[in-house]
Write a structure and sequence with these properties.
Layout lengths: L1 H12 L24 H9 L26 H16 L2 E7 L4 H13 L3 E3 L3 H8 L15 E6 L4 H9 L4 E8 L2 E4 H8 L4 H56 L1
Antiparallel strand pairs: 1-3, 1-4, 2-3, 4-5
Length: 252
C-alpha cells in the first residue's frame, strides 16, 4: 500500500521509477515444420526400406492340402476282418502285452481257447483308422503300444480274468461288452455280477410267488364269504329249533 502511494506521488511530480515491471504475453510460435516438396515425398516413399518377410519354419502350421492316402488291399482285408469281429463278438477286450515271450503267449492262448476266447492281433494304425469311422471311436485311445484283442461270442469275463491272473505281463486296458464300452475297473465289476441264468431263475421264482399270492388272495374272499354264510345258516337253524321247542311244550 505504501509503495503504491509513493509511486502515485512521484508520477504526479513528473518522476518515473527506474525499473518498471512489464507483463509480457505468451510468445507466438513462428518456427513451424515446413512441408516437404512433392518430389521429395515421392523419392522418400520409393526409397523406403521394407524388411523381408521372415520365413515360416516347416511344420509350424498344418498344411492346407490334406493328403488322402488310399488303403491297399491288405489293409482293406484287415479292416473287413476287424469289422466282422466287432459285429459277431459280444466281448472284445483290449490287452497290452509287456515283454511277454512267444511261449507265454502260446500258453495263454491255449488257456483262453478252452473257454472259447480267441486272441487276435491287428496293427494299431489299421485299428484306429477303422474305429475313427465307427460307433466304437472312443476305444481308439486304448490302442497304444503292443496290444492284442481277446474276443468271444459270449461275454466270458470271469474266465478271461482268471487266465490273466496267471500272466502278470498282460495288462487289461478296457473293452466292449454287449455293445457297452467299459474300463478295466468296469470289466472287473461286470465279472462280479450274477450270470443270466441265475437272474432268470430269480425272476421266474419271483413272478411265480406273486401269481400264487394273487390267486390265494382272490380265492380267499369267496371262501371267507361262503364260510360266513354257512355259519349264519347254522345259527338261524339253531335259533329256529330253540323257538320251536317252547311252543311244542305249551301245546302239550
Amino acid at each position: 500500500m505504501t509503495a503504491t502511494l509513493c509511486a502515485t506521488l512521484l508520477r504526479n511530480q513528473g518522476w518515473l521509477p527506474l525499473i518498471q515491471s512489464v507483463r509480457h504475453g505468451s510468445k507466438a510460435v513462428t518456427r513451424h515444420k515446413r512441408p516437404l516438396h512433392i518430389l521429395k515425398q515421392k523419392l522418400l516413399a520409393v526409397t523406403q526400406y521394407i524388411p523381408p518377410v521372415r520365413p515360416v519354419p516347416p511344420g509350424a502350421y498344418p498344411s492346407k492340402n490334406k493328403h488322402v492316402q488310399e488303403d491297399n488291399g491288405f489293409t482293406l482285408l484287415l479292416k473287413k476282418d476287424l469289422k466282422k469281429v466287432f459285429e459277431e463278438c459280444k466281448m472284445i477286450a483290449v490287452v497290452q502285452k509287456n515283454g511277454s515271450s512267444a511261449e507265454e503267449m502260446l500258453v495263454l492262448k491255449h488257456r483262453l481257447f478252452k473257454h472259447g476266447i480267441i486272441v487276435k492281433s491287428f496293427p494299431n494304425q489299421v485299428t484306429r483308422s477303422f474305429l475313427s469311422d465307427s460307433v466304437y471311436c472312443n476305444m481308439a485311445p486304448l490302442f497304444i503300444g503292443p496290444t492284442v484283442l481277446f474276443v468271444s461270442k459270449e461275454p466270458k469275463v470271469k474266465e478271461m480274468l482268471s487266465a490273466l491272473k496267471a500272466s502278470p505281463q498282460m495288462t487289461l486296458l478296457g473293452g466292449c461288452i454287449d455293445n457297452t464300452l467299459l474300463s478295466a475297473q468296469g470289466i472287473v465289476g461286470y465279472s462280479k455280477l450274477p450270470s443270466v441264468t441265475v437272474i432268470q431263475g430269480e425272476l421266474v421264482s419271483g413272478l411265480t410267488m406273486l401269481t400264487s399270492r394273487t390267486a390265494s388272495m382272490l380265492q380267499r374272499h369267496p371262501a371267507h364269504l361262503s364260510a360266513l354264510l354257512q355259519q349264519y345258516i347254522k345259527q338261524q337253524s339253531l335259533g329256529d329249533g330253540v323257538e320251536a321247542a317252547p311252543k311244542a311244550e305249551e301245546a302239550t
